[in-house]
Amino acid sequence: MVGEENEVIRNIKTRRSVRDYTDKQVSEESINTIIDAGIHAPTGFGSEPWFFVVIQNREMMQRMSDYCKPKLLSQLEDVPSDNVTEFKKMLKKEEFDIFYNAPLLIIVLGSNAGFTTDYDCAMCAQNMMLAAHSMGIGSCWVGTACFIQDNEEFMSELGIPYDYRVIAPIVFGYEGKVRERPPRQEPEVVWIH
Predict the structure, then answer these.
(1) Which of 49, 64, 76, 180 is most buried by a 10 A CB count?
(2) Nitroreductase domain location, by residue (predicted)?
(3) What pTM was computed for the model?
(4) Residue 193 in this model has a pLDDT that exceeds 80
(5) What is the CATH number of the domain that holds 134?
């Protein structure tokens, strides 16, 4: 790559999805810093369409995991990818936790009224994960958890307003077993001068 890497570029390039966490809880101050980084993401028309639910209750996260696993399994039934086949095996294991036993789950929700809500909340989520990484805290966007949207009991228990939907469920915590970050493929780029 051309050019010198600065601290921001290094943070982006070294962040990865963490799937093994210690039991150490993330402090409230760190959680607030992570969310604050999220809300500084750009939004279409300055809408700021987000709402956050912070969950540190392992029993609730376990119930959510148990609810979501069979939902995803049924959707992946006919997907013929080797990676998906391995993931389906994991989903079938009773002890498998879709949240990877992380001590913290922050759900980024988006307003149904927003025109650019999905994009805005995705940029918010990326800011949050990059901020966490810069603080030595791992993260992983767990798309499987979006199935809680279909469960009125969870939505009510979590205090989610009726006009919001789950966009980005992200777990955070301190990394346990460190995995190497897989190399990125060279992108295909069309240049038009």
Answers:
(1) 64
(2) 12-174
(3) 0.93
(4) yes
(5) 3.40.109.10
